[in-house]
Amino acid sequence: MLPTLNEYKKGVTNWDHRYRDIPIRLTHHSAYGDTPHGIWNYYLFLKEPMFAYPDVFKLFSLGKYGNIPDLKFHGGVSFIEKSTFLYRPTMTICCLVKIGCDYNHLSDENLQELYTYSSVLQDAKDSVDFLYSNYKLNTVCCYSGIMAPRSEFIETSTGTFIHKTAKKQFDTVDPANDF
Q: How far is CA 78 from CA 12, 68, 102, 127, 160, in A?
């Protein structure tokens, strides 16, 4: 259910997306103080098994402001949060890095009304595209969650990918036609 206009004006609204296997969150903080149009943020959620090479993930997980690789974030990275999660395919604890940026820099102070949901989402997608064009990332199985090289997957008719080991779990289903 959508928030009422009054609820929206009092708080923060989040929109979660997935683009090219990367979770994205757009956030809009309601108007307050000297920001009558509110403040936009976007975040990318990077999971350790997404990266084909562990040393590349360390650039993000061990980084601090200013030395994280540039993914073309608006104004640069202004938020880093590290946590862990259970990667179920191997039952191991892995690192998750949430990195993001905000649209409330000195150069943005008179531009807030120009930023929209669509423009911020496109900026986030551009960051994901830049990530893919500069780093080797694994594919995520839509069925089991396994993250592995694309060569280990079967592509379905809808463009999703199923890991070859997951297909064995449901041999009566044809992933090329049934997803």
A: 18, 11, 7, 14, 32
Residue pLDDT, tens place only, 76-126: 888 899 999 999 988 999 999 999 998 877 666 666 567 889 999 999 999
Identify the CA nearest to 49 among candidates 146, 129, 141, 144.
146
User: In Å, how far from its chain's centre is CA 94?
Assistant: 16
Paired tokens of 164:
């070859």
User: Is-contact 17 6, C-beta < 8 A?
Assistant: no
In one letter, which amino acid is 110?
A: N
Three-state secondary-structure class, residue 177:
helix
Burial degree of 88 (CB within 10 A; 0-12, 13-18, 19+): exposed
pTM equals 0.83
Tokens 């903080």, located at residue: 29
Give the C-alpha separation, 84 to 104, whole Å.
29
